[in-house]
Amino acid sequence: MGSIKLANNITPKGLVLAINTGSITTKYAVYRDGEIILDRKLEHSVQELSRFADVMDQEDMRTQAILGALEENGIKLEDIDIVMARGGLFTPCITGVYNVNEDMREVLSSSREGNHACNLSALIGDNLANTINDIREKKGIVPRFGKCVAYVADPPMADEMLPECHVGGIPEFPRRTLFHALNTRAIMRRYLRDSGRKAEDTTAIICHMGGGVTISTHRDGRVIDTSHGLGGDGPITPERAGCCPPYPLIDMCFSGKYTKEEIKKKLIGKGGAVAYFGTNDMREIVKKAKEGVPEYVVFMKAFVLNIAKYIVAQGALVNGKVDVIILTGGVAYSQDITDAITEKVKWLAPVKVYPGENELESLAENGYIILAGETKIHTYNKDHIVED
Asked: Is 203 helix (H, G, I), strand (E, B) or coil?
């Protein structure tokens, strides 16, 4: 990350705070007039997160980390012009930018559409924006861009899937969207810039690998299908079980050994590598596998195979006409993993690797476009999509 470059000769102006709370990380950055001046990534261990009964209980811990870094780096809260947050789990919604309002807060706080750390981003962002406005009022500061507002961009449940991709095995179980929309869309834009291609002429399968893993198909600028990052429709991940056989899961649910919340935790948070080895750090898994520890070797092969299967399955939607397969996310820093996946899927399309996330930069980019008045702001309604 570095300088923000905007289309249409827009010059970035203002101080932007970007917040991205993930399942195992808290990332935040501050940009001044398009230049990054603070960039932090906190990695939360299984032991640290286990202190909290519910992910939503982590709000204060993560907020204090952000406030501490701002103070440490001499960044005054009241100088921040806009807060951009990673979109949480809320529906109904379409792609775009939303201001954080009470409807959104209610849905995120209650985890109505799912329980995940990304729900915290908008809540933390809105709280900080309100604090900024209170400080300004007490100090008599007249802001250059008006009231500080928190926004989200490209929420993970934005739905552009083809109708046939919504159909599940029974009517009660329709397939739904939940993917790393912010990063995959940002990476898609980056790939198009790098390759000189146009969105309307490009079909890409993008695999984001972090604490969760999602695989999505991007065609003509839209995401026409995706695996579900939390709902059991996806591969094994560092901390998620992925797709599970239903009959054993039913037996577990009715065994009397576990509460509903304990079973959910087994699937999300204590599944995947955590269930096998007690760690969500794929670097440790790779290290042990390279040392030849048998159980780690087998898990690594299974991890790679699971992802490769889902990538190839997405190719069926577009009759195998795929221009590029992109591997991204924090786990994509491991060349051992990306090389192994590439070997299994390169027959379908060329593979490009963009390790890490472009999410903070994408959030800041959206923030500057908002400050410039160059984008449409959607107002979230918890009951139906509002096109305004």
From this structure: strand
Give the integer Cα–Cα distance in Å for 384 and 174. 18
| Contact in structure between 375 and 85 (CB atoms under 8 Å) | no
In the chain, beta strands by DSSP E = 15-21, 25-32, 35-43, 82-86, 97-99, 150-153, 203-209, 213-219, 222-226, 324-329, 351-355, 377-379
Tokens, residue 321: 């006409």
Total residue count of the chain as it appears in this document? 388
Distance CA 65, CA 62 (A): 5
In angstroms, rounded to a whole number, what is the distance separating the alpha carbons of residues 331 and 275? 18
Residues 188 and 288 in one domain: yes
What CATH number has the domain bearing residue 255?
3.30.420.40
Q: From CA 308, how far away is CA 289, in angstroms rounded?
A: 19
Q: Is the whole-model pTM more than 0.85?
A: no
Are 148 and 210 in a shared domain? no
Q: Measure the CA–CA gap between 378 and 183, rounded to whole angstroms.
A: 20
Query: How many domains does the chain fold into?
Result: 2
Residues 138 and 221 in one domain: no
Among candidates 230, 152, 208, which has minimal Cα distance to 357? 208
Nearest CA to 141 out of 211, 77, 72 is that of 77
Domain extent for 349: 181-356
Q: Are residues 132 and 190 in the same domain?
A: no
Distances (CA, A) of 342 to 41, 313, 329, 339, 351: 28, 15, 15, 5, 6
Averaged over 31-47, what is the pLDDT?
Answer: 90
In tens, the pLDDT along 191-209 reads: 998 999 999 999 999 999 9
> Is 126 within a domain?
yes
pLDDT at 357 (0 to 100): 80
